[in-house]
Amino acid sequence: MKLTQEQIEIFRKKGWLVVEGVFDAAVVEEVARRALMVAENEMEELDVARLVEIDEEGKVTGPRKVEFPFLKDEIFRRLLLTGPLPDVVGQLFEKPAFVMRDQIFMKPPHHGSPKCWHQDNAYFRLEPAHEVLTAWIACDDADEGNGCLRYIDGSHLLGVLPATADPEQEHELIPDPGSFDESANTPACVHKGGVVFHHVNTLHHSGPNVSNRWRRGYASHWCSANVKGDLIREAYFNSEPALYSGC
Fold this sequence. Notes:
Order of helices and strands: HEHHEEEHHEEHEEEEEEEEHH
Shape: globular
CATH architecture: Sandwich
Helix content: 25-40%
Structural class: alpha+beta
CATH superfamily: q2cbj1_9rhob like domain
Strand order of the largest sheet: 1-12-7-14-5-4
Strand content: 25-35%
């Protein structure tokens, strides 16, 4: 898939870009189905509070997250490594791209919770930041009703903002609300099989799922060979060479 120069310029200016039709809808549906199976198999072994969605009565309503799916099933490795993403991300970097890590985020119908504003690089701490991005694959149509991603245009140019841990969820690093205009946000609506790309410094969040539909998204994080930081030692292309080259 060849990006247009206009698409590349939009990404550079806004810090994010929606590209429709990157994957066939049937392919990502099978990926989402397999992710649900992985999540269900792990429910009793992992931290249930983070892995699944729980309602006010404590009832489990559906899986919430799968960490590192790349390591858990070949279907995820094939999607990332043998599909169009390495080439498309490489066009945005203007050099070869490599997968660092991944997650699958799930918002069950009526129960998918919101995600606070954040920058990926508040966690990753990688440089040069313009050679690190997230490719968020839509496994369902994503819109404002079921909790699509939302972005602050141009926020990648602000650098990594000071952030504090949420007292109730210490793993959440929340930037100072006074450091950006939260009202100036744009929804990244995307159809199933499309991909939302965002710069590692771009401020983003997602709302709750108030619809009767799933909102499943496969987030893969990519970098160039130039990128430095502690996280690189654990990146798939460094730590899992057999899996990385086996597809």
